[in-house]
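does this look right to u?? nicotinamide-adenine-dinucleotide version
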Amino acid sequence: MTSTTTPPRITVLGTGYLGATHAVCMAKLGIEVLGVDVDERKIAELAAGRVPFYEPGLAEELSTALESGRLRFTTDFDEAARFGDVHFVCVGTPQEQGSDAADLRYVDSAMTELASRIHKHALIVGKSTVPVGTAARLAQLVTEVAPQDAEVELAWNPEFLREGFAVDDTLHPDRLVFGVESEWAEHLLEDVFRPIIDAETPVIVADLATAELVKVAANSFLATKISYINAMAEVCEAAGADVDVLATALSHDGRIGGRFLKPGLGFGGGCLPKDIRAFRHRAAQLGVGQAVAFLEEVDAINQRRRTRTVELVRELAGGDLRGVRVAALGAAFKPDSDDVRDAPALDVARMLYLEGAEVAVYDPKANENAHRAYPDLVYVDSLGEAAHDAEVVVLLTEWDEFRHADPALLGYVVAERRVVDARHALDAEAYRQAGWEYRALGHPAVASVRETSLAPS
Ligand SMILES: NC(=O)c1ccc[n+]([C@@H]2O[C@H](COP(=O)([O-])OP(=O)(O)OC[C@H]3O[C@@H](n4cnc5c(N)ncnc54)[C@H](O)[C@@H]3O)[C@@H](O)[C@H]2O)c1
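got this back:
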């Protein structure tokens, strides 16, 4: 089998958080890229050099890529089929309504619309996160719908980028995983990722099923680690122990490590929650539900962090949230993102509101998306506005703006100096010294002696 000497031309189908980043970064690496989406507004924005979501550094890279002439955008699938040697499918795979399964209709549609228009030898590469077995089904589908004069093959290349670090993660991934069925596909993917491979990034070549599984197995592990320390937080609260000190002590054990061992409000976003649910659902279909039954508990622990945060706010408010003014700091599922999909922050704000609290939500970047998701909540434009006259402040997303706020100054704005630090991101001692009643999940209500010097990395 041959590999091309000039980089293959690629298309990227689905230009959301994953696809737009992938398209921009591939153009930066010297590849001719055509970004494709069914959303005309999104394509118009991207073509005009505007990123339709917040991702640090992406707007600058988009401008440079557009100026280079290597990146264009379209909604035309015929053009995409003509243009690409390799087609990356990056469309959404959300949770199905009323089920834990992944909704694969967008992947199916993108693959069908594309493959039925291809008249050459081309590789279609799935990047979306899918249940194991999907690629094998799609490999058959694209062969069936492709015209007679086409030779279409399917590969899977799962993506591990983190929102907030998406550009760097795409350009400098920890590893590349190529799920392929031929050497031709493997070499073509090597040609696409040549600069990344030349930087000595490990490449794992696998069959389609293993490649699909790497992604969900990785996300399940990370979710489990987060829920593990949050389960310890529950035990700490019952036992009067301090989960931050516990996490620090655990993190010094090289076998455990400190990353993803930070107690708090838990995980959310467009990946981890739906991915672990879809994994359980798929494992059950395969007759091995028992093997990942623990993920149900991982999910349950994660959900309990949200209700426990509401309880802490209620406790601080004196037992009844009706009419209590609460400043909800953060709506995005994590800082440096405007993504509110399954965001713990927004969920807590919504639960406080449903209990009768007067909630003012402020997020530096996610207010607009949050308003679209929950229009009933009140959104304000600054930290000061949110905190003004608040009876309880609750930190829900650990943006730097909130971490670095001066507790003394904030104290002048609020009605009562009470704070729930749901992300363990504030300097507890500084808040207490400034006269605040400070509470965090898994912390004793009274200050532990060494809590400030022992924050986990
Ligand atoms: N966001 C992340 O950090 C991340 C990381 C790794 C993997 N993933 C996976 O990547 C996939 C995409 O996630 P996302 O966060 O980018 O979603 P997203 O919702 O931001 O983007 C999906 C895009 O696909 C487009 N689309 C839908 N149907 C289409 C079609 N038939 N043809 C072309 N475009 C179509 C939508 O208009 C949208 O722009 C998911 O499977 C997700 O699990 C996401």
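Residues 13-19, 36-39, 42, 90-93, 106, 109-110, 113, 128-129, 159, 161, 163, 270-271 surround nicotinamide-adenine-dinucleotide (CB under 6 Å). idk if thats expected tbh
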